[in-house]
Amino acid sequence: MNIANLKNYTTSISAEKSISEIEKLLLNFGAIDFGKRAENGYFIGLFFSIDVQGKKVPFKLPVNIDAIASYLAKQKPNTSKEKIYEQAYKTGWRIVKDWVFSQLSIIASGMAKIEDIFLPYMLIDKNLTLSEGIKEGRFKNLLTEYQQE
To answer: How many Cα atoms occupy the beta-carbon half-sphere of 112 within 13 Å?
Structure first.
């Protein structure tokens, strides 16, 4: 993948502004109980709850700063690690903001329901999403090969 294909890779918008915009989008969609998780001075997850079929369901939207930093470092090998990481932080949250906006637009249009879109990010444990649980092998019985008849 060419760096020009990575959305928002040159953004100057702070991660905090992007997170605030995500919270506002979700708030306008009925989300409540917002929270953030930080590591080493960087926000790495945004938590919220939203009504799904009459139940308050918690979700976590993660951002993988390390993955973006690794990608950017390969594309810009002469840039300092600190600059790469700061740009990855801004880029990651901007990508998530754009994704959330697009997904909420799909939901608002009636093409999908919130559970169709956000299910992988539903919390199944204190800080573990369904998607992360699947990657850890917690749901091996759900991941069976499709058998055509």
So the answer is: 12
Helix (H, G, I), strand (E, B) or coil at 36: strand
Handedness of CA 98, 99, 103, 104 (dihedral sign): negative
Tokens representing residue 147 in the block = 């058998």
Buried b (16+ CB within 10 A) or exposed e, 89-107: bbbbbbbbbeebeebbeeb
Quick one: pLDDT band at residue 66, thresholds 50, 70, 90?
Answer: very high
Segment 92-107 mean pLDDT: 97
pLDDT band at 3 (very low <50, low <70, confident <90, very high): low
Tokens linked to 5 = 């294909």
Phi, psi for residue 44 in degrees, rounded to 5: -120, -5
Please state, rounded to an integer, the average pLDDT across all residues of the chain. Answer: 91
- Kindly report the pTM of this predicted structure: 0.88
- The phi-psi region of residue 33 (left if phi > 0; otherwise alpha if psi is between -120 and 50; otherwise beta) is left
> Which amino acid is present at 67?
A
User: Among candidates 105, 106, 132, 137, which has minimal Cα distance to 119?
Assistant: 132
Residue 43, both tokens: 């926000």
